[in-house]
Amino acid sequence: MANEEAGRKEYKLFIDGHLYDWTKQYISGVELRALGSIPAGVQVFLEEPGPEKPDRAIPPDASVNLAEPGVEKFYTVPPATFGR
Questions:
Q1: Alpha-carbon span 21 to 70, nearest angstrom
Q2: Is the pTM value of this prediction over 0.85?
Q3: 30-70 per-position pLDDT tens digit
Q4: What is the C-alpha to C-alpha distance for residues 10 and 45, in angstroms, rounded to an integer?
Q5: Number of Cβ atoms within 10 Å of the Cβ of 74
Q6: CATH T-level topology, domain 2-77
Q7: Rounded distance, CA 80 to CA 84, Å?
Q8: DSSP secondary structure string, the chain?
Q9: 3 contacts: CB under 8 Å, gap ≥ 6
């Protein structure tokens, strides 16, 4: 979802339920991590709408188009702790 204000678009996105504003159409995995203060080793996923599409992992070198319909929702998954 974008808003026009003084010729600048603003995109909304969620990371772990927290709302953020972003001024570029695309956001990289690295930028997502910085914006949400996500530590190394924690995975980031983009929630895909509907049950037919699995959520998409967003590695640091990936890019997500925020101009798609709706507000993008990202969530984090900590590293597995099996056997501890």
A1: 14
A2: no
A3: 999 999 999 989 999 999 988 888 999 999 999 999 998 88
A4: 22
A5: 25
A6: Ribosomal Protein L25; Chain P (2.40.240)
A7: 10
A8: -EEEETTEEEEEEEETTEEEEESSSEEEHHHHHHHTTPPTT-EEEEPPSSTTS--EE--TT-EEETTSSS-EEEEEEPPP-TT-
A9: 9, 10
Tokens of 72: 């993008």
- Alpha-carbon distance 16 to 30, whole Å? 16
Give the model's pLDDT for residue 16.
97
What would the pLDDT profile of 12-22 be if each residue is shown by its tens digit? Answer: 999 999 999 99
Q: Which two tokens stand for residue 77?
A: 């998954």
